Amino acid sequence: MILMSGPCVIESYENLSKVASLLEPIAKNPKIDFYFKSSFDKANRTSLDSYRGPGIEEGLELLSTIKKEFGYKIITDIHESHQAPLIAKVADVIQIPAFLCRQTDLIVAVAQTDKIINIKKGQFMNPLDMQYSVLKAIKTRGGQEATYEESKRLGVWLTERGSTFGYGNLVVDMRSLEIMRRFAPVVFDATHSVQMPGGGGGKSSGDRSFVPLLSRAAAAVGVDGFFMETHFDPSIALSDGPNMIPTQELNPLIEKLLLIDSISH
User: Fold this and answer.
1) Domain DAHP synthetase I/KDSA: where (predicted)?
2) Where are the chain's structural domains?
3) Could you read off the pLDDT of 243-257 as tens digits, one per residue?
4) Virtual torsion, Cα 166, 170, 174, 176, nearest 10 deg
5) Architecture of domain 2-264
6) Residue 246, helix vs strand vs coil
7) pLDDT tens, residue by residue, 172-204
8) Angle between the 211-221 and 250-264 helix axes, to the nearest 10 degrees?
9) What secondary structure does DSSP assign to 51-106, as a single string?
10) Average pLDDT over the chain, rounded to whole?
11) Residue 35: how many CA atoms within 13 Å on its side-chain side?
């Protein structure tokens, strides 16, 4: 089971290392294909005054240090096409943010590297239409069809993170997991799916209490993995604190998901 986990944004090396250390028991589980996640820049924050991160040069240096110290594979976001070669020097998975999931130049730039590309489904997207984003990457890598097998072979993943529902809320349609799995491996983003965009008065809010419920449902439907942001103390996190799972609570949830996953298969 794929698991991508770590703090939403790089706050400091001390905080990054503390979360990485707490994740070691999960990362060493032989049933899990683990990727450490954190962003060097959150370019789509609600407010101009919100913390964005240390930037690409310092951020990649810190992620590289974590990679060497803990032996973790790394996933991080890309925001502009020219960043792809630099990010590819450190990351094992390069993630296309949900708001940018249709950006052709960005998808092509990542697909031209030899890294796995993880495309997050836009909150505004019909899940069936995500096949065209997948196909952009597939064709760039020499393939012709957007099928599960071809996407897996060429390293193209999709991530579900909920759909816009009314004002300041998201809803997860579990049918989208099955629909998108027709043309790519699918990861369920449990923490962004409980986000309330802009619900915090100039910043996003959320309700992490629903993360276990939605995760168990996704595992029962059948997915290839999970994306869960985590922090040792979400109350002081500089981004997405209300959505993130306290790192100390992550392991029991993962054990339940592994059990459900084994039954569903």
Assistant:
1) 1-251
2) 2-264
3) 999 999 999 999 999
4) 80
5) Alpha-Beta Barrel (3.20)
6) strand
7) 999 999 999 999 999 999 999 999 887 666 666
8) 20
9) ---S-HHHHHHHHHHHHHHH--EEEEE--SGGGHHHHHTT-SEEEE-GGGTT-HHH
10) 95
11) 25
